[in-house]
Amino acid sequence: MAEVAIRSSCSHCLFSSSSPKDRPFCSSALKFQSLKSSKNSQFHGRKIVAQPLQRGVHIRALPIQMTITFRRSFKWWEKGLQPNMKEITSAQDLVDSILNAGDQLVILHFYSPGCGGCKALHPKLCQFAERNPDVLFLQVNHEEHKSMCYSLNVHVLPFFRFYRGAHGRLCSFSCTNATIKKFKDALAKHSTERCSLGPTRGLEESELLALAANKDLSFSYAPKAPEPQPPTFPAVQADTVKSAPANPRSPFKDKTPTEVGRPPALWIPT
């Protein structure tokens, strides 16, 4: 920080319109201002005082190096973001983020920078994310990923989809500030703790195939082969089983088993 004396114009100042011979030096004309300077500057941490200009004396210009920085202005969809809010960059990033979430509830939020409803709803979504740190909020910018949104059948904004573990997609809807109760009810219903017994499903099979079929996206997906099922046989009821008809040419059709040739029971005398 350096203090620089700057002479202002007044009736007695050196820079007034009167002749320099007839005006005295005005000490009140010196005003000090604080200037930020670079560390490489020659006057860093020192005082620079401008002396009154006298006849035959000239002020030598000093080299001054200054750096001016401007603070980055955040856009409305970048303000108030929480650690559990993530911006999606590609279709592969979307698929991996949902799969890696496991049993964690995932809320997929589609928005657009030019959407007034999305802008009005953004502060409330940041509050929901702060109150529910176990919920993952994934944000998809419609302007940057129009082709991907088209493949996912997203045609209205703001739009939401809920995913969780082995259940896959739980619900999907659109809401604004006027219908925020719809979002609150879905969050309260699906944010309860639970454990999935199967692997994480992620996006639906139809959604994955639609993303893979989109040539504008660098995403590939191979459909899973169906698992072989064990053969099943129809159940046979007892009343439907019928005995085969007797052969009319058989010589034993009217005879008893003893007559046919079965040996009779042996008789043992006592």
From TrEMBL:
A Pfam family annotated for this UniProt entry: Thioredoxin
Originating species: Stephania yunnanensis
Protein's UniProt keywords contain Electron transport: yes
Gene Ontology terms describing biological process: cell redox homeostasis
GO terms for cellular component: chloroplast
Region feature (Disordered): 221-270
Family in the record: Belongs to the thioredoxin family.
Protein name (Swiss-Prot/TrEMBL): Thioredoxin domain-containing protein
Keyword Transport: yes
Gene3D superfamilies the record matches: Glutaredoxin
